[in-house]
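User: I'm curious whether this sequence folds into something compact or stays loose and floppy. Could you predict its structure so I can see for myself?
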Amino acid sequence: MKGTVKVLKEGFGFIKTDEAEGDVFFHVSELKGVQFDDLEEGVTVLEFEMGEGRNGKKQAVNVMLAED
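Assistant: Here's the prediction. I'll summarize afterward.
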């Protein structure tokens, strides 16, 4: 799936995508090739998969961002 970083909080955020209902949660541990501190809202998410978080809820996993 693809999308855009919509919201960033301390150690997590949400991705807006047309492919999923509502915004998709992601945890800092699922970022690939980027540091959380380097993220900004509005950045394009090149690819992510839907997976299951520790709490059993759906979340984005293997989150990769588009390069500048």
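Summary: The beta strands are 3-9, 12-16, 24-27, 31-32, 44-52, 58-65. The chain has no helices and six strands.
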